[in-house]
């Protein structure tokens, strides 16, 4: 997922990009890897908790989905291998 994180206007605070500038509503790229859907996040001070929760939820959901898929595939593969092994032995005897 590739998202834009819009920083709040905070006097005296420096933005991550470009270096040395104060935050004046400029946006800095936030790359969260290859997740989807693509999100555009707004970051005013009043909704920091909401945005943090949304980001955390999106990341957690993506990780959970991937792990669930990997585990399901592993179980399916193990079961398929076990059945194939049993059938092979049954036929050979």
Automatic annotation (TrEMBL):
Its domain of life? Eukaryota
**UniProt-recorded name of the protein:** Uncharacterized protein
Organism of provenance: Fusarium oxysporum
């Amino acid at each position: 997922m590739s998202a834009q994180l819009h920083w709040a206007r905070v006097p005296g605070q420096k933005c991550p990009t470009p270096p040395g500038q104060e935050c004046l509503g400029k946006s800095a790229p936030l790359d969260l890897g290859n997740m989807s859907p693509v999100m555009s996040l707004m970051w005013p001070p009043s909704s920091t908790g909401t945005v943090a929760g949304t980001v955390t939820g999106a990341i957690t959901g993506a990780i959970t989905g991937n792990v669930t898929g990997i585990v399901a595939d592993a179980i399916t593969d193990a079961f398929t291998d076990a059945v194939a092994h049993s059938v092979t032995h049954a036929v050979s005897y």
